[in-house]
Amino acid sequence: MYFLYKGAGAPASPPRVARWLKEAGAPQPTEAYRGPDVPAWLKDGLQDVLRSLKWGETQAGSVVTSLPSNVRDALRLARRALSTTWVEAWDEHNMLVQYLVFTCGPLRSATLQATFGVVYAELEEASDPLRMYELLLHETAHHALALKEQFTQFLDNPNAVGTHALRPDPRPLRGVLHAAFVMCRLAEGLGRYLEAHPSGGPLDGCPVRERHAFALKSLCEALTVLDDTAVWTEDGCALRATLGVCLEREGAPA
Fold first, then answer.
1. β-bridge mates for residue 62, sequence order
2. What pTM was computed for the model?
3. Is 88 exposed, middle or buried (0-12, 13-18, 19+ CB in 10 A)?
4. What is the DSSP letter of 207?
5. Class of residue 201 by CB neighbours under 10 A (exposed 0-12, middle 13-18, buried 19+)
6. To which H or E segment does residue 212 belong?
7. What is the pLDDT of residues 56-89, one digit of tens each?
């Protein structure tokens, strides 16, 4: 080990070397996009997101590169909450998401396959620390499942139609599966926060318990739709079992 660091002076102690290696392998926090310019791919990506939400008007939203202080504060608190509550989810977020892009426009938060690695978040939505915390978990979950889907298939009928709590309009079952996966991540992330900060923490004053209950209820509803309609593959059955374990762990029937 000394020869790896011989240019740094005296031989490093094993704990110091271990710390260096850990720091070198840890991803840096995801960047909040600050410009100064907004490239065409990012403008087009935002418009594609708005079109996917049925906003046909061009330029209905815009990228914000100068963040208000309340958004900066919410991001700081949400990052502290996630990094102190669920280290693996924090690392996954920083590994999969390259940019948090804040916007003005008719959306809450979104991801787009064409701009994988980008999370779009509306300023007002992002100004609340709890909503920001949920946003980090929510959109990273979409990234994680979309990446898994490049290598396997979870449903034999992904285009069959169903609905769920987050999007009451009829959607392909693939969308319902994404909703279930997201709600599982939210339920676990909120549950872990309550366990890690029983006497107060970065999300003090926020309705964490209420949002935890909502995530569990929404997960149950999405799984009910899937269990009634979905044709699971072998990998899909394994994923369904994992989602059921999440419910059991958080104190809800699977």
1. 104
2. 0.85
3. exposed
4. -
5. middle
6. helix 208-229
7. 666 778 899 999 999 999 999 999 999 999 999 9
Cα–Cα distance for residue pair 46/105, rounded to 1 Å? 10
**With 0-12 CB in 10 A as exposed, 13-18 as middle and 19+ as buried, what is 146?**
middle
In the chain the first and final C-alpha atoms are separated, in Å, by: 49
DSSP 56-86: -STT--EEE-S--HHHHHHHHHHHHHHHHH-
Give the separation between CA 254 and CA 90, rounded to whole angstroms.
26
Q: Are 193 and 206 in contact (CB under 8 A)?
A: no
Nearest residue to 164 via CA among 105, 88, 225, 120: 225
The answer to whether 134 and 86 are in contact (CB under 8 A) is no
Angle of the 173-196 helix axis to the 234-249 helix axis, nearest 10: 30
Which residue type occupies 44? D
* pLDDT tens digits, one per residue of 93-114: 999 999 999 999 888 999 999 9
Torsion of CA 76, 129, 165, 159, to 10 degrees: -20
Residue type present at position 233: T
